[in-house]
Amino acid sequence: MSRGLPLLHRRRILLSGAIGGITCAAVVVGAAMAGQDGGGDASASTKAASAISCPAVSGSLPEIPAEAQAEVDRNLALLDTQLAEANKRLSTSQGEGGPNFVQNAILGPLADKRKSTLDRIAISIGRHAEKPAGLDALAECTLSDGGEGAGSDTGAGGEAGGAASPTAAASQPADEQGGGADQGGQEQGGGAGAGSGQTISCPDVASGIGDVPAAAQAEVDRNIALLQTQLDEANKRLASSAGEGGPNFVQNAILGPLKDKRASTIDRIELSISRQGSTAPSGLDALAGCSLASG
Questions:
Q1: What is the band of 36 on the pLDDT scale with cuts at 50, 70, 90?
Q2: What is the DSSP string of 198-234?
Q3: d(CA 251, CA 235)
Q4: Where do runs of H (alpha helix) occur along 65-181?
Q5: Distance CA 249, CA 244 (A)
Q6: How far does CA 96 lie from the centroid of its chain?
Q7: At a CB cut-off of 8 Å and minimum separation 6, what does 253 contact?
Q8: Of 82, 91, 106, 109, which alpha carbon lies 20 to 30 A from 261's?
């Protein structure tokens, strides 16, 4: 008897330890599974929270001349590519920047790219038929819930979000409707970045244009002035945004959008010259990019 009790006691201890181990393992596994379920729901919620939706373009175009069809199709496909890239940027930039990050770094640059592409569509049609008016009204995109924004403009349905009806009044580029700047001289930034001693410097476009037909001079001058206005606004943004965002904030929210605006404006300069039967200057697109310079 004296020998059996210790043996029974040891068996009880071993059995209790085994049960305790199983219980702990069950708790750990249950917690892990709960954590995985919670993480999955959060991830799904994040992915489905929003996407970018753009107005359809293809349904707003007139009958396209056969000679322009290939170029129009190429630019419609480019609109799809731009939208897909913007949605990818949206999904990978969670938590970046301040409250205006999405507008400044994603939606704004996307609108500028779309304006430039829409201009090229109008130009390609206008070479062989009446140029469509008001396509610029379709450049702006918005956030929509549930991931419905990744529409296509190459199919019949067009991009998600519904097409806005362009009007003749909207044919003037939106960025031309603001106040102009004094014309002439090198394009240089006026304001210094707050505490950074830096400004934005852009290549001079006026000196690369060459001879301008008299009939195109006013429009060219207006767009040259617009380039300066865009630069002044970018420098103002640089000065007022010290400390915002991460290491790529200036490139994503200021220099990138500025380049897109300049590219669209340069396209309009080339178009205004080519309308008069003159050869548009080549290589101006290379002057769209700007950089930071010491103040």
A1: very low
A2: EEEE---SGGGT----GGGHHHHHHHHHHHHHHHHHH
A3: 13
A4: 66-92, 101-102, 108-126
A5: 7
A6: 15
A7: 97, 101, 104, 105, 108, 237, 241, 244, 245
A8: 91
Burial of 14 (0-12, 13-18, 19+ CB in 10 A): exposed
In contact, 165 and 159? CB cutoff 8 Å? no
Enter the DSSP assignment of 194.
T
Residues 108 and 124: their CA atoms lie apart, in Å, by 25
Q: Report pLDDT digits (tens) over 252-290.
A: 888 988 988 898 889 889 888 888 888 878 888 899 999
Q: What is the CA radius of gyration of the chain?
A: 29
- What pTM did the predictor assign? 0.47
Beta bridge partners of 201: 188, 291
